[in-house]
Every structure is written in C-alpha cells, then in structure tokens.
Design brief:
heterotrimer, A mainly alpha (171), B mainly alpha (710), C mainly alpha (102), A: 171 residues, mainly alpha, Four Helix Bundle (Hemerythrin (Met), subunit A), 2 domains, C: 102 residues, Helix Hairpins, 3 helices, 80% helix, elongated
Chain lengths: 171, 710, 102
C-alpha cells in the first residue's frame, strides 16, 4: 500500500511538473518532449489503477502516434526551434487566474464530496484480475456491449482522416 | 408477394449501392443494374397487383353513429392482424349487428417487425399493402422502368452517367418506401429520401450555377413544407394515443377519438407539407425551376414520384383531413381552395411559357391542383384515378419533350416547329398524350378528370366544379398551343432533326398505349363497372363513408363540350395565322376579332397582357387612387395639425426634456458599446478565458447555493 | 489509496491544460494543451471505474479508450487546420487569426 502511494507521489509530481514546464517552456520541441513525460506518467497511473490495457494504448497511441504527429506539425509549420520568439500571448495573467479559479473550485468540490473515500482493495490473484477487468475483459466488452459505439468511433476516425486530407492537401 | 412487399424497395436500394460501387466498371456503366432492378420490381409489383385483385375480400362494417365510436374504435385495426394469418374471412367483425353500412373490402395485408421501443411506446416497421399502395407501386414501377430505358439513350455519354442511375434507383426506393409504409415515421424516411434525390438529380449538371440554384431552390422549398410534415406527424403521434400507425390514426380520427383542435393542427401542418411537396400554390415555384434537371428525371419527378408524394400523403391520411376539415360537410375547406387556386394559376402561367418543359411543368402543377382539389371536395377515388392516369400521360409528354429536345438540342419552342415531319413517332405519341391531358373522350384523362368534376358537383361544391371546368378548358388550350408550336409550322431551329432511337420511342409508345386505355379501368359498365375504384378504395374510404357517384352522361358531355370548344378555339387561333396575309391586314382595322386573329401569339398576349396586365393594372390604379385621394388627404391633414402642435411641442418638450434624454441615452449607448467593443477582440483565446472563467464562476455560485441549502 | 488523489491529479492537469490553451500563442502548443485536458478526463474515468464493481471498471476503461481514439482524430484534424493556417498566413500565431474581431 505504501509502495503504491510512493509510486503515485513520484508519478504525480513528475506529471504535474512536466505539465507546468510544457505550458511555460519557450521551446516548442521541448514542449513536445515534456508532453511525453506527462503522458508516460499518466500511463503509469493507469497501471496503478489496474487498467493495463488503457496504459498500453496510452503509450502506443499517445506517445507513439500523437506526439510524433505533433513533432511533424512543429516541423512543417517551421516553428522557431530556439529560444527566440514569444510563444505566449499577452494574457497569461488572465489565463492563470482562470486556471487557478477552476482549480480552486474543482479542488473544493472534490475534497468536500469525496473526502477520504478509499479505492476498494482488490485481493485477487493475477488470473482472477485478468479475467474480470484485464485486457480480455475489456476486449469482450468492446466487441459486445460497446460494439455500436466502437463502430461509430471507427467511422469518426475515417471522417477525421478524410477531413485531414481534404484540409491539408494543396490544390 | 403481398406479405413480402418490402422486397421491392430492398431491390432498388441494393441496386443503388451496387451501381454506386461497381457501376463504373461495368460495360454499360451501371445502367444495366438499374434496368434489371426496375424490371424485377415491375414484374413483382405486377404479380402483387394480380394477387391483390384475387385477394380475399371481406365485408367490413362500420358503425356510423359517433356515440358508439369509442367502443367500435378499431375495426380497421382489428381486421388487419387477422388478415396477416391469411384467414381473411374471419376479419369480418362480428359486431356488425349494430347494422351499419356493410362494404365488401379487400383486407389489407400488414406485415411488421419490431423496430424500436422508447419508454412504453413500441414502434414497428412494417408494410401496409392495400389497393392504393398496389396502384402506386405499379405506376411507379412502370414509369421508373420506362424512364430508365429512356435514360440509357438520352443520357448516354454523360460524365456522371453512373451516378445518375444510382440516384434514379435511390429515388425510386424513396417512393417505394413511402407507398408501402405502414406508419408515418417510415413514410417520412421515404419522403426525405426523395427530397435528397431530387436535389441530386435536379442539380445533376451542377457545373452551371443556374442548375445548382434550381436544385437548392427545390430542396429548400420542399424542406419548408417538410417542417409541416414533422409537426403533423408528431402532433398525430400524441393526439392519436402514441402511435405512428397510419391505419390506426385514420380510424381513430374518423371515430372522433382525437380532439378536434389537435386534429385540425395536425391536418394543417400536414397540408403544408403537401403544398410544398406537391408544388401547390403558393409553394409551387420550385417545380418549373426543377426543369433544370435531365428530362427523364423531370418525367419521373412529375409523373410518378416526388410531387405525387404529397397527394399520396393526403390520400393516405385522408381520415385525418376528412375529419379535421369536415370535407363535404361544410362548403369550403383549405384543401379544395388551394387546389382550385393552383389549377387556375398554373394553367394561366402555362400559356406564357416558351420552354416546352416549362409548359409541361405548369401543366403538372395544374393537374396536381386537380388531385388536391378532388381530395378537398371528397372525390377520393377520382383524385386517385387522376393520379393513376396522369402518371402515364405526363410521363409520356415529358419523355416526348425530351425526345424532341434530343433532336433539336433545345427546349425553346422557338427553335422547334414542324417537327411532325421529322419525328412522326414522337409526334403521334405526343398528340395522344396531349389529348389525354386535355381530357378528350375516350382517352385516360377524360375519365379521371370527369370523375373529379362530378364529385365536386355532386358533393355540393359547384364553384369548384366550375373552377375545374375552366381549368380543363385552359389545359386543352395551352396544350393545343404547345403542340402547334412544337410540331406544326415551319422548322425554326438549326441543324437537322431526326427521329430518336428505339430506346426513346419505345417507352413513348408504351406510355401512349397506357394513356389511351388506362381510363377504361374506371369506366362505368366496363370490367364490371368502376373496377379501379373498387380496387383502391380502402378501409378509410369505407369508414368515412365517402360518397360514391354514378357516372353522369350530362357532366361528361359538359366537360367534353368545354374541352373540345377550348381545343377548337385554340387551334383556330393558332392555325389561323396561316391565313393569307392580305385578308388579315384588310380586316385588322375593321373588327376586334381580326386583330386577335392576326396576332401570331394571340394566347400569349391574352395572358401576358390581359391576365397579368389585368391583375396588375387595376390594382395599381386602385392603389394610386387610394394614394392620391385618401392617403394624401389624411397625410396633409395630419401634417397641418402636426405642424401647429409641433411648433409648440418643439419649444417646450422637445428642446427641453426629450433632447436631454435622447442625447443622454445616445451617449450612454455609445459609451457602453465602446467598452463592450473591446471585449470582441476576435481572439479566440480571450473568449476561451471568459468562457472558462464564467463557467467556473457559475459553478462557484452553484456550490455556494447547494452548500447553503444543505 | 484514496480516490481523491487521482481526481485531484486530474484536476491539476486539467487546469494546467486550460492555462496552456488560453495562454499559448502557437497553434501546435494549444493542441498539446488540449491533450493534457483529455488525459485528465481519462484519469477520472478510470479512477471512478475503480469505485464500482467489475462492470464499472470495464466501462471506465472502455470510455477512456474511446476518448483516446477521439483525441487522435482531433489531433489529426487540428493539425491539418494549423497547417492550413500556416500555409495561408505563414504563421501559426493564434493572435494573428482574428477575423472575428469587432
């Protein structure tokens, strides 16, 4: 239990610090790399929450595909790679106030409502866990209960693909 | 077949996808799939037609006394499930002892599957096959098949040939779905499918802005009406006790189980949809523009699908309209009025067109007006019969016009003339179509139009009968003009016209045969007398006790006289221009009649000058007089009084109180606007901050509120 | 472990993401911040799923997967738009994109 909490502490600290660096750094490529750290920490958090399939998908899709896509975006838009140039606009203050306001309200609500609610203990063997909420169980759910949303999502991906091509091609 | 009628729309729907995906790779670019599909549909609907003719019939009793209505409510609905088992004889309800009118009626075939369920309301998808549906199916199949055949030649070499055939298939599917639908929701799907396809087909040659504008206009105008359909369907759904089933809605409406206000609202909303789809006054404007599409499409839209969808809706939910508008019980109702107005207005417009397709387009509007008016005056069978016959001769006329334009590469009648010599087959079939449209004995249009007029007269709508007769005369006259300009006189175009290939002329001949003989189906004393009527009349018809009238020789003679008179006068005027020049000139100053006679476009002048000018002139003059005498007087008087009081007010009130206020508020608004203007920076992120911040503040307020109340 | 530790982590990431979306000028960076927001939502989904039974846990995970998919689609289209803006205006500076200015 303590080990889990320590792990969580490290992960949370690294993800929050990386996230803050990501939104403040003056180098676009560094921002993308900080994003990798955040996404990796979040993936590790999923493993803490016994959601190993989501964690793996997070690594594959986010770090494998989306971050690469971002790097391509950076490259193609020839964003300035050095420190020169301002990446923030002139309303950082307003943005910070808004963000802190939201954080305050969310934090208050969460602490007020959930307080010290504990996550249930899963005293199960590895096999039991795998059968009830592991990758196999998730796969079964996707292809039975959530079949129609799954198909809809594939259509959405297709539409996004077509849309991206239409938007980005030169003609 | 009757129970599996869903196969027919399924075939055309499959054909649509097949053409879309594989059409381009096939030797005939996908047209063979469409032809095959429609051929099979034609076959199947013919089989279904014969099965319906031999279908079990049963006596159906309806209690006419409204008091017992609630108890006797669902006769039609009860009859339906029994028929499904094939034990149709049992469907004759035993409650007939109340001694109402008994009618022999073929029991409709219902077939439904569970569709979806929301709350306690279960909706079934199903087919409802009765005489009306069968007739529609058959007509649509015939026309669509012939249009397909025609198109293979007419559209050959078109750059979107394959897409064209795919759209035709989908279009036909829409109509099939609509006519076989057992509930209004399914009907809505078919209805919208047709709206979409008409958009695609009218805008088929979208490279020209004119065509894509016409497509947009058609789509948007019919959409305007479709709002009515949505409102009507949902009103009926709730008013009729949470059901979409058409038979149930009709019988409940006729039994008085639906409150009159709700019924009236639903009927008006649905009628708006009919006006939009069937191009009735005042939403008729899209239909002439829809001529921008390929000619076979016009034939399909005008003869068998799209525009008659509105009429079909009217006929299908006739119980609702019958009850809501008290048809035949009160002297006037919106359905008859709109139909009547449309007949006259559209017929008048047909005279001033130079484009042959537009003449036919206005003619279609006018004929649809007949159907709507027929339904409005209680001549249900007549209206349906007119739909049936009109489908054939209007398709014939459109395809004939397409054939002519195929030869002269123009739709302007100025470029035609003398085509009789070059295109004998087209000419003779066109002549047959024109006479059928004019309602000339014994061609198809005569029987159906006569039946509507007879119904109008007998049901106490004498005025509408006169409107119908005037319309008939106008129809005959403008068709004479159209035929004359196209086929007689000297050839005025360029190039060498020639007769069209067989793929074009054969459909024309087939349609000509139908145009000649279709009318006999409901002729008295033939096939057992008014055979068609007994075929289509459905439970609603019997339930509402729509009056049936025997054929009247007097009425027939009257309409014949009017029609022949109109043709005679029109022909005399048009062919009269070939009189020797000298005679005309000599007599021109002498008498007024000769002035008209000498005028080559007598009817054009009549209608542009007399009708349009006649409407425009007096109104303008009256408005001018009113302006000069009444308004000016009032204005002058007011001005004088105002001037006197004004000078007083100016000094005391205006300068003092009002100016201060006005200036103050102006300055205030300017200041406020100026400061608010700064908020609209056009920078999304600033808006984002406000959005997030505002949401957070609202959440804060909510929390404080909830926290305090706990 | 407390439920709240995950939820609060999500909340913090969410707010950092909001700050990034509002304060960054570069279009690509704004898209990255949106990813941060979506990730915080995913943490919430999975954490709330843990609070219920097996079915709830599965539901939470499946929804997180859907969100990841949607995010991928969003990035694709978003980057295409950024590219288009860059091509038309040779900048991805969102301050320059102010056609809505009053």
């Amino acid at each position: 239990m303590i080990a889990q909490n320590i792990a969580f502490g490290i992960l949370a600290a690294s993800s929050v610090l990386a996230a803050i660096r990501m939104v403040t750094t003056k180098n676009v490529v560094h921002a993308a790399l900080y994003l990798v750290v955040v996404l990796g920490s979040v993936a590790a958090n999923y493993i803490l929450l016994a959601a190993e399939f989501v964690a793996v998908v997070q690594l594959l899709v986010y770090i494998g595909a989306i971050v690469v896509l971002f790097l391509f975006g950076v490259m193609l838009t020839r964003a300035k790679l050095g420190h020169e140039g301002e990446l923030d606009n002139d309303q950082r203050g307003l943005a910070a106030v808004t963000a802190l306001l939201i954080l305050g309200i969310l934090g208050y609500v969460l602490v007020d409502y959930f307080g010290d609610d504990k996550l249930p203990q899963l005293n199960r063997t590895h096999e039991q866990l795998n059968a009830t909420r592991g990758t196999g169980a998730v796969g079964n759910a996707i292809f039975s209960t959530y079949l129609i949303p799954f198909e809809v999502v594939s259509v959405l991906l297709l539409a996004a693909l077509v849309g991206a091509i239409v938007l980005a091609r030169r003609d | 077949m009757l129970e599996h009628i869903w196969i027919i729309p399924a075939i055309t729907f499959t054909s649509f996808w097949l053409i879309l995906f594989f059409g381009k790779r096939l030797p005939f670019k996908g047209s063979e799939i469409g032809l095959l599909a429609l051929g099979v549909c034609l076959l199947l609907s013919t089989v279904a037609g014969f099965q319906w003719i031999n279908h079990d019939s049963a006596e159906v009793h309806f209690e006419r006394a409204p008091v017992a209505a609630a108890a006797e409510g669902g006769h039609a609905a009860e009859a339906a499930p029994a028929a499904e088992d094939g034990h149709a004889a049992e469907a004759a309800p035993a409650e007939g002892e109340h001694q109402a009118e008994a009618h022999v009626l073929r029991t409709p075939v219902d077939k439904s599957v569970h569709w979806f369920k929301i709350g306690d309301t279960q909706v079934d998808a199903g087919t409802h096959v009765d005489g009306l549906a069968i007739v529609m199916l058959f007509t649509v199949s015939v026309i669509s098949f012939l249009v397909h055949v025609f198109s293979t030649s007419y559209m050959s070499g078109d750059r979107r040939f394959t897409h064209y055939f795919a759209s035709l298939s989908l279009f036909t599917t829409g109509m099939f779905v609509l006519v076989t639908a057992s509930n209004t929701l399914q009907g809505l799907f078919g209805w919208e499918l047709m709206g979409l396809c008409s958009f695609m087909l009218i805008g088929h040659w979208w490279e020209e802005p004119k065509n894509s504008n016409a497509a947009l206009k058609a789509f948007l105008t019919t959409r305007t009406g479709d709002i009515g359909l949505l409102v009507g369907i949902s009103t009926l759904f709730f008013a009729a006790g949470r059901t979409f089933d058409i038979a149930t809605i009709n019988s409940r409406a006729l039994d008085g189980q639906i409150g009159h206000t709700a019924l009236l609202l639903a009927a008006i909303a649905l009628f708006v949809a009919v006006i939009g789809k069937s191009a009735q006054f005042p939403l008729h404007t899209w239909l002439p523009d829809a001529m921008a599409g390929p000619t076979p499409v016009s034939a399909l839209i005008h003869a068998a699908t799209m525009v008659v969808a509105g009429v079909y809706l009217l006929a299908r939910l006739y119980g609702v309209f019958w009850q809501a508008f008290s048809i035949t019980h009160s002297s006037i109702n919106p359905v008859a009025v709109v139909g009547g107005i449309t007949i006259i207005i559209a017929a008048a417009l047909a005279f001033v067109q130079t484009d042959i397709k537009k003449v036919l387009a206005y003619s279609t509007i006018s004929q649809l007006g007949y159907m709507v008016m027929g339904l409005g005056v209680g001549a249900w069978t007549g209206a349906m019969f007119h739909f049936f016959t009109h489908a054939f001769f209007k398709a014939l006329l459109f395809l004939g016009a397409g054939s002519v334009s195929h030869a002269v590469h123009s739709f302007e009648m100025d470029d035609m003339g003398g085509m009789k010599k070059y295109m004998p087959k087209t000419f003779w079939t066109f002549i047959i179509g024109s006479f059928a449209l004019a309602g000339f004995f014994p061609l198809a249009g005569f029987w159906s139009k006569d039946e509507i007029l007879l119904g109008a007269g007998q049901n106490g709508y004498t005025f509408f009968m006169i409107v119908g007769l005037v319309g008939a005369a106008m129809t005959a006259a403008y068709m004479t003009r159209c035929v004359y300009l196209t086929f007689f006189g000297e050839y005025r175009g360029h190039g060498h016209p020639h007769e069209s290939p067989a793929a074009i002329t054969v459909p024309l001949m087939v349609l000509a045969v139908f145009s000649v003989f279709a009318g006999f189906l409901n002729a008295p004393k033939l096939f057992g007398g008014e055979w068609f009527g007994r075929l289509v009349e459905d439970a609603t018809f019997v339930h509402a006790a729509i009056p049936i009238h025997d054929f009247s020789v007097t009425a027939a003679l009257l309409s014949m006289a009017v029609v022949s008179g109109a043709i005679g006068v029109a022909a005399w005027l048009h062919f009269g221009q070939r009189l020797p020049k000298g005679l005309t000139e000599r007599s021109t100053p002498a008498r007024l009649g000769h002035t008209f006679l000498a005028n080559r476009y007598f009817l054009d002048h009549l209608y542009t000058g007399v009708i349009i000018g006649g409407i425009k002139g007096p109104i303008a003059r009256a408005a001018y007089w009113f302006n000069q005498n009444v308004l000016d007087g009032v204005v002058n008087g007011v001005a004088f009084a105002a001037k006197r009081s004004g000078s007083w007010i100016y000094k005391w009130i205006d300068q003092g109180a009002i100016d201060g206020t006005v200036n103050g508020s102006g300055l205030g608004a300017e200041g406020l606007g100026g400061s608010l203007r700064r908020l609209q920076t056009g920078r999304v992120q600033q808006y984002g901050s406000l959005l997030f911040g505002g949401t957070a503040l609202f959440a804060l307020g909510l929390i404080l509120l909830v926290a305090r109340s706990n | 472990m407390l439920l709240n530790q995950f939820l609060l982590l999500g909340a913090v990431l969410f707010c950092i993401g909001v700050y990034g979306v509002l304060a960054r000028k570069n279009g690509v960076l704004v898209l990255m911040s949106i990813e941060l927001i979506l990730n915080s939502v995913n943490i919430n989904l999975v954490a709330f799923g843990m609070m219920g039974g097996d079915a709830a846990a599965i539901t939470g995970q499946v929804f997180a997967l859907f969100v990841i998919t949607v995010a991928a689609a969003e990035v694709g289209v978003g980057l295409a738009i950024v590219l288009l803006i860059y091509r038309n205006r040779t900048t991805v500076d969102l301050d320059e994109v102010d056609l809505m200015k009053g």
